Amino acid sequence: MPEKKENEPLSPVHSQTGQILEDQSNSHDAVFGDITDDGPNYRNVGWLGSAALMMKSQIGLGVLSIPVAFDTLGIVPGVICLCVIAAITTWSDYMVGVFKLKHRDVYGIDDAGELMFGKTGKIFFGFAFCLCEYTDAEIDFEATNWVFVAGSGMLGISIALNALSTHATCTAVFVAVAAVVGFMLSSIQTLGRMSIFAWVGLVCIVTGILIVTIAVGVQDRPSAAPQDGIWVSDYQITASAPFSESITAVSSLVFAYAGTPSFFSIASEMRDPRQYTKSLMICQSVVTGVYLAIGCVVYYYCGSYVASPALGSAGPTMKKISYGFALPGLLVTTMLVIHLPGKYIFLRLLQGSRHLTANTITHWVVWLSCTFGITLIAYIIASAIPVFDNLVSLIGALLGTLMSFQPMGCMWLYDNWSQGTKERSPRWILMVCWSSFVILVGTFLMVSGTYGSIVTIIDSYNASGGSAAWSCADNSNST
C-alpha cells in the first residue's frame, strides 16, 4: 500500500462544485495513480450519480422481505427496528466518507483494517469478505459477499424471465442468460459510466415494487390468501416469535441496508469526495422512506400471505407487469455486484502499474478476466448449491453486519482516540460511547443472526432437501 498522505489534494478535483480538471494529463489519485486521456477516468462520478449508485446498491427485490420481517416481529416493533437500523447504518455510511477524506489511499474495508490493526487487520477484514486464498500478491477477500449477492441477482433475473415467459424454458437456461448479460454490462470500466444505468435501474425496480404495493391495496385479497369466503388481513401490531425467527427477521432488515461496502468504491470514484455526505443523505432518506412505505402497506394488506417471491402477491397478471418493470433494475443490480468485486481484484492486481489507467492489452485482459471470473464463480455457486437462498441469508447475517457496524465504530476510534489524551470533552466521551455501542450491537447481531440463519437452513433442508443443482423447475411460482 502506498504511504498515507494526509494532506494530499483531492486531484483531479479543483473546486467544491465537483468539476474535474480540464487537463487530465497531470491528474493523480492516491488509489488509481495517474489518470490520463489514454485510459478510463476513474474519478468521474458526480454527487447525483453517486446518490443513484448508493440507492441502487441498497434497493432491490429484497425490500419485499420487509413485510415478512414485520410479520415475524409485528408492525410496531418492526418499524422501530427498521428505524434504529437505518440510523446506525447512516452513521456508519457517513464514517466511510469521513475516513476516506482523511485517508485518501483507502479503497476498501481491508485498507481501513490495515490502517487500524496492521497486516492482521487487513487479513481479518479481507477473510471476512472473500473465502479465497490470501496470496503474496495481496489479492484480498472483500469480493466474497458480493459474489454471493451476484449469484442471488442472477436467480432474481431468472425468476423475472420465468414470470414474464410463463416458464418458457428451463430455469438453468435463464440463469445462464443472466450470467452472460451480467458479465457484459459489468465490464463497463468506471462507475461514472454506470451512473445512468443506476438511475434507470432504480426507477424501474421502485416502479415494479410500487405496482405490487398499490395492487395489494386495491384488490380484495392477496393471491396467496384463501380465495373463498370473507377475508380479513391477519397483520399483527406486535408478535411473539421464537428467538431464532425474530433475530433472522432483524438480520433481514440489516441486510436491506448492507450496501455499505460499495460506498468505499463509490467515494473513491467521486469527482469530489467532499460531496459524499450530500449523496449519502439523499440515499438514506429515499431508501428508508421506500422501505417504510412498502413494508407497512404490503404487510397491512397481505398480513402473513405475502407470496414468495413477493412480486406475485397481487396475482399472475400483476406479477408479469411488475416483473416487466423490475427486470431492468435486476439487471443493473447484477451488473453492479459483479463490477464491484471485479474492480476490487483488478485494482489489487494492477495497482502501481501504468496498465491500471491505460487502455493497454494487459489492462483489458486483466479487467475482463476479473469480471468473467466473478461471473463464473457466482453462476456456479447459484446454480449448484441446493440451499443457495438460505446460504445467502447466512452470508448476509455473518458478513452484512460485519461490513456495516463494527469497522465504522473502530474507524471513529482510530481517528479520534488520541484527542482524549489531550482533552476529554463531553462530545468525545459521547462519541466513544456511541462507537463502542455500534461495535457491541453489530457483534451481537452478527453472532445471533448467524445462529438464526443456521437454524433456518437446517429446518429448510430437513423439510425439502433443498433444490436440485442446475434445476429446470419454475422458480417464480412458490408461495
Automatic annotation (TrEMBL):
List where the protein spans the membrane. 63-88, 164-185, 197-218, 279-301, 321-340, 361-385, 391-414, 426-447
Which UniProt keywords are listed? Membrane, Transmembrane, Transmembrane helix
Chief place where the protein resides: membrane
**Which stretches make up the Amino acid transporter transmembrane domain?**
45-454
Domain of life where this protein originates: Eukaryota
Membrane topology according to the record:
Multi-pass membrane protein
| Cellular component, GO annotation | membrane
Signal peptide region: none
Q: Where in the cell is it found?
A: Membrane
- Which InterPro entries does the entry mention? AA_transpt_TM
Q: Which Pfam families match?
A: Aa_trans
- Single GO molecular-function term? L-amino acid transmembrane transporter activity
Family (UniProt) = Belongs to the amino acid/polyamine transporter 2 family.
Per its record, how is this protein called by name?
Amino acid transporter
Organism field: Penicillium argentinense
